[in-house]
Design a protein that fits this description.
The complex is a heterodimer of chains A (about 290) and B (about 150). With about 290 residues, chain A is mainly beta. Chain A is built from 2 helices and 16 strands. The N and C termini of chain B lie far apart (about 40 Å). Classes of the chains: A mainly beta (about 290), B mainly alpha (about 150).
Chain lengths: ~290, ~150
């Protein structure tokens, strides 16, 4: 319920951006779909992988604002994410996401309360350092960005009992994204240094491994038309906790961009085993609005 | 197991993209696929029609000789898409100097061109073949350093 209120509040963020700061106003000056959608961590990208693109449609003299709500119903859990991002001058992206991982009826079987919900706040920043995914059609150089995400999970005592070392941590990543217009294709790869267990929902570092490890995110998207994209994401994750093995995550999606103000993404997502409950895969739906 | 399915999908998408590339090209020129002389002429006149009615960029043509721009654009696209023409106009950098164009202006023209190509029934993939050739002009048109 709290997340619903939060979602409503965050949906007001793009509306606030309607107000102009002199000449510095949203110009929606970039091409449809080129900003991607919002990842489960709030950054611009695919569903699971952060891209080098800056979120929104603001050009290099403008800005854009997005808010999103994502829900994934898994066999034993429900993931809900609400967040917002601001893309400035097609150069800098600031994002925020609140994740809830609801154990529902599974809670008591894990020794937790009915409906016990793991929560996490994620603040992200991303800066484009070189290349241009759209205009660099005459070169192989991709658009490259570097980013950081500060993550803070709830309930440190429980995470500690599960074997996690910390309830907060910082992910650092480098993302390269290339749009090949003449192939209607977007491809990308991201290297992420992280200590996060299940994206951070189960804390950071653990009894099995406490160090940063290098993880990979791969993304491919095929443009069926101006406003319809199909794609897939693959993401490796650390396996730091002794009590339960953690596996890679993958998603296949279709995203519809009727206008620059709204996008809807439907996906099949598989985040692997979670907390000894076996494979967690299911439907994923994400709605994004922006200016 | 599902991951194998997803990886297959990954590869299938890649192959779709690559084969879409390899099956076009060699036989016919992009110029032909855009509809030859009449197709390119209609695309350019449609682009200008939408552009001159577009509050985002109509004003940037205030001091332009529109019929001349139209003739040169047809010639330039014909040249760039391996049609039987030689572009006789100025460089993109020179012809846009002083117009103070930005990325939003550039993309507004792209969007108008997409609409004009839709009107002409140009398939999406063919549209992107043309846009892939025009996109790198962004730096010269907007006076921004190539990035």
């Amino acid at each position: 319920m709290k997340l619903l209120h939060f979602t409503l509040a965050i949906l007001a963020v793009p509306l606030a951006a309607c107000s102009n700061f002199g000449d510095y106003a949203p110009d929606r000056g970039r091409l449809l779909a080129t900003g991607g959608v919002s990842t489960v961590e709030g950054s611009g990208g695919g569903g699971l992988s952060s891209w080098a693109t800056i979120s929104g449609y603001g050009s290099d003299e403008s800005f854009g604002v997005n808010a999103f709500y994502t829900q994934s119903n898994l066999p034993d859990f429900e993931l809900r994410v609400a967040g917002a991002s601001v893309g400035m001058n097609d150069r800098v992206e600031i994002s925020y996401a609140k994740q809830q991982f609801d154990t529902g009826d599974t809670g008591p079987e894990l020794g937790l309360a009915q409906g016990y919900t793991f929560e996490q706040d994620i603040v992200g920043a991303k800066v484009r350092v070189l290349g241009d995914a759209v205009y660099g059609q005459d070169t192989w150089v991709p658009q490259v960005s570097v980013g950081a995400q500060y993550k803070k999970a709830s309930d440190a005592p429980l995470l500690g009992a599960l074997g996690a070392t910390d309830d907060d941590g910082v992910d650092l990543y480098v993302a390269a994204t290339k749009i090949m217009l003449d192939k209607n294709l977007l491809v990308g790869g991201t290297l992420r240094a992280t200590r996060a267990n299940q994206f951070g929902l189960l804390g950071f570092g653990g009894d099995q491994n406490d160090d940063y490890s290098m993880q990979f995110e791969g993304t491919v998207a095929y443009m069926l038309s101006k406003n319809l994209v199909i794609g897939a994401d693959y993401r490796t994750k650390p396996d730091n906790l002794g009590f339960a093995e953690e596996q890679d995550a993958a998603a296949a999606y279709i995203a519809y961009f009727p206008t620059k103000n709204i996008s809807v993404t439907g996906a099949y997502v598989d985040v692997g085993d979670v907390a000894l409950r076996g494979k967690q895969d299911g439907a994923y739906l994400s709605l994004q609005v922006g200016f | 197991m599902k991951h194998i399915v997803l990886i297959t999908l990954f590869i299938a998408a890649l192959c779709t993209g690559l084969s879409a590339c390899s099956t076009t090209g060699a036989q016919t020129t992009l110029y032909d696929r855009l509809g030859g002389n009449s197709g390119v002429t209609n695309i350019v006149s449609g682009t200008l029609k939408y552009t001159l009615a577009d509050p985002r960029i109509a004003h940037t043509f205030d001091n332009s000789n529109v019929p001349r721009v139209e003739k040169l654009l047809i010639e330039q696209i014909c040249d760039l898409t391996d049609g039987p023409c030689t572009y006789s106009g100025q460089t993109m950098e020179r012809s846009h100097r002083g117009l103070n164009l930005n990325t939003m202006h550039f993309n507004a023209l792209v969007e108008n061109m997409q609409k004009a190509m839709d009107d002409e029934g140009v398939p999406f993939a063919t549209q992107n073949d043309l846009l892939a050739i025009l996109a790198p002009m962004h730096g010269d048109v907007t006076g921004r350093p190539k990035r």
